[in-house]
Amino acid sequence: MAMATTASTASHTSVASVILEVADPEAARRFYTRFGVDAYLRLRASEAHSAGFRGFTLALTVSRPATVDGFVGAAVDAGATVLKPAARSLWGYGGVVQAPDGTIWKVATSAKKDTGPATREIDEIVLLLGVEDVKASKQFYVGRGLSVVRSFGGKYAEFASGGSSPVKLALYKRRGLAKDLGVPAEGTGSHRIVLGGTAGPFTDPDGFAWEPATAATSLTSAPSAAPALS
Question: Within its chain, how far is the Cα of 168 from the centroid?
Fold first, then answer.
């Protein structure tokens, strides 16, 4: 794992882009277009080794159960595997799928009943990083200029979105995140994700890599690189 960069007076950081590293960018581009999240992602080719849980998930928050079913159905039709069928829970309604490139997606709503027809609207996308020590990682990102808007001790922390950022960043205990997704927590190799940020390049305590990003987020190719998985 790469050593984490530390800074006590770092410039403000926010998620400007999410780059998924995939073996077949063209196939991934087709999948994400059909899934309906192509406006939020960039792709780049990478053959970096990755096995098991990659340590993160991208979560879509939508308005109602019918919309959850619509997104899950679209993902499955495009080639995704269902890890958790959409179902009601204590917190609402949701399901988990895994894209053909290996990325895990959760689609959920706090509503338990439909109040209207399904739509293709996404209320929010949250990138949940599974970390070993939520408190330590939270302090690391606070040092990078992020503002905490929600925190539950050593289990979860959520940061404010910066400006026009399309994705909100949150931290979850790695094993807790894996359990919520229905997968084993073990994993080796690359995370297969790189975050474009408004500050300079750095790597966080769990090996998630950030690089400067100036372009708007889109489902386009980017130069190849591979961060290490902790």
Answer: 9
Read off the tokens for 182: 């229905």
**Are residues 190 and 46 in contact, defined by beta-carbon separation less than 8 angstroms?**
yes
Q: 60 vs 84, 92, 200, 220, CA distance in Å?
A: 15, 13, 27, 20
Radius of gyration of the chain from its Cα atoms, rounded to whole angstroms: 17
pLDDT tens for 187-196 read 999 999 999 9
For residue 171, the cross-strand partners are 129, 157
**Is the separation of the CB atoms in 129 and 56 below 8 Å?**
yes
Do residues 55 and 205 lie in contact, with contact meaning Cβ atoms separated by under 8 Å?
no
pLDDT one-digit tens code per residue, 24-38: 999 999 999 999 999
- Please name the residue that has the structure tokens 């204590």: 90
The two tokens of residue 146 are 């992020």
Amino acid letter for position 129: L
Q: Which residues of 192-224 are buried (b: 16+ CB within 10 A; e: fewer)?
A: bbbbbbbbeebbbbbbbbbbebeeebebbebee
Q: Could you tell me the CA-to-CA distances from 115 to 64, 66, 112, 149 in Å, in that order? A: 7, 9, 10, 29
Contact call for residues 177 and 112 (beta carbons, < 8 A):
no
CA separation, residue 37 to residues 18, 22, 87, 97, 99 (Å): 11, 16, 22, 14, 12
Nearest alpha-carbon partner for 83 in 92, 72, 70 = 72
From 25, 230, 21, 15, select the one nearest 128 (Cα to Cα): 15
